[in-house]
Amino acid sequence: MERKIKVLVAKPGLDGHDRGAKVVARALRDAGMEVVYTGLRQTPEQIVNAAIQEDVDVIGLSCLSGAHNTLFAKVMELLKAKGAEEIKVVAGGIIPPDDHQGLRDIGIDGIFTPGTSTENIIAYIKDVIKD
Amino acid sequence: MNLHDMVQGIQEGKTRAIAKAISVIERESLYANDLLQMIYSMTGNAYLIGITGPPGAGKSTITDKIVKEWRKQGRKVGIIAVDPTSPFSGGAILGDRIRMNDLNTDPGVFIRSLASRGSLGGLSPAVYDTALILDAAGFEYIIIETVGVGQTEVEIVELADTTIVVTVPEAGDDIQTFKAGIMEIGDLFVVNKGDRPGTEKMRLLIENMLDLVHLDWRPPVLISIGAEGVGIIEIVEQVNKHREYLSSSTQLTTDRKKALGKKISLRLQYLFEQNVIKRIFESSDFDQVLTDIIQRNSDPFTEVDKLMDRFCPWLKEEED
Questions:
Q1: What is the ipTM of this complex?
Q2: pTM above 0.95, yes or no
Q3: How far is it, in rounded angstroms, from Cα B144 to Cα A122?
Q4: Are B152 and B116 a contacting pair, CB within 8 Å?
Q5: pLDDT averaged over consecutive 10-residue blocks of chain B (320 residues)?
Q6: Domain that holds residue A90
Q7: Domain count for chain A
Q8: Residue among A29, A118, A129 with most chain B CBs within 10 A, to mutate
Q9: Taking Cα atoms as reference points, which of A37, A50, A38, A48 lies closest to residue B110?
Q10: Domains plus CATH for chain B?
Q11: Are B122 and A29 a contacting pair at CB < 8 A?
């Protein structure tokens, strides 16, 4: 059987804007992926535990509150601490260009800000999973 | 992670090992059988509970609350949450964790979402085998949550020792749900969202349906308000009672033999599909066979008999 790509889509932090995350979740499903959607207001601990239990290939983090630097870093830290650093992390939401390099430095390569087409996100995920 | 480490990790209840092992099964990896053979002797201690019902009935919310009750008693609980695979894309949105976020950070709880996939040899075995992994990892209760529509879901629930059917007052005139065979599989019925109008009517409707069949175990019909935690303790009590009932008779053994028979049957079908049917379909003259049938030079029934003679000749020998 063809190996399905499994993605966890989560919203860390306190903002309640989940439209983007839901659109992405649906687009990934329509691209044949299995998407675990965990909803709003997740702590980094909840996200990392869920990702490990679900054994996902990719975590998609969406944040529109401005707290991305802190929250995303915490997720990366926990993944490392739990020996799950092979899980790829991609990010979306309101992430100012000035912060992109900082996120890349901690291992978040795919950063998708408003205006990104879902095809780009799908292509990126398919590509990083190939390796 | 190699197989040996995985088995040891499962035995020690390590999250990563359990999660990786479930993936091995889900992906039908070559190691899946070896893995299951290695852990099988560690299983047999878990109690399986199926929760099913129409979408939006509150299955995940009730699961969340029941699990919290068991956690108060120090029980370890595994949850297998099955959501449907899209028949169009093959993808799936697995959203049951949304209602169980508090359980995410509890080390005594393991939640795994599975997509129904729905191919022969796909769904039911994966759920059954995932339950085996959780069983081997020391989870005392395993909840299998699935949307109760369609035959495949009914089949999964048949694996469970106790099956809870969750419905809502609004399903009052929706006899379809009960036609689907759900009525027969419930050991316990719950009318959730019990603060809405029509609750009592729904309860009576189920009671009336249950009156029509004679059963040794008369399934209780309970009312709950899942989101507020109302009626949860009663559900847990009735699960215990049903468990006592099963173990006081030979019913538990009978049920488990039936589930096992089903599991073995599915496995055999899968192997037949892979080893015989696939070979037939890939054989060089198969296209000619189809052409002959379409042109009415032959018919499907004759051809199937001929294929069986050719690919499974031993069956004929046994007949003779």
A1: 0.90
A2: no
A3: 31
A4: yes
A5: 92 95 87 92 94 87 95 96 83 86 90 76 70 96 81 68 90 59 82 93 87 84 94 96 91 84 84 90 94 96 93 75
A6: 6-130
A7: 1
A8: A29
A9: A50
A10: 1-42 (no CATH), 43-251 (3.40.50.300), 265-319 (no CATH)
A11: no
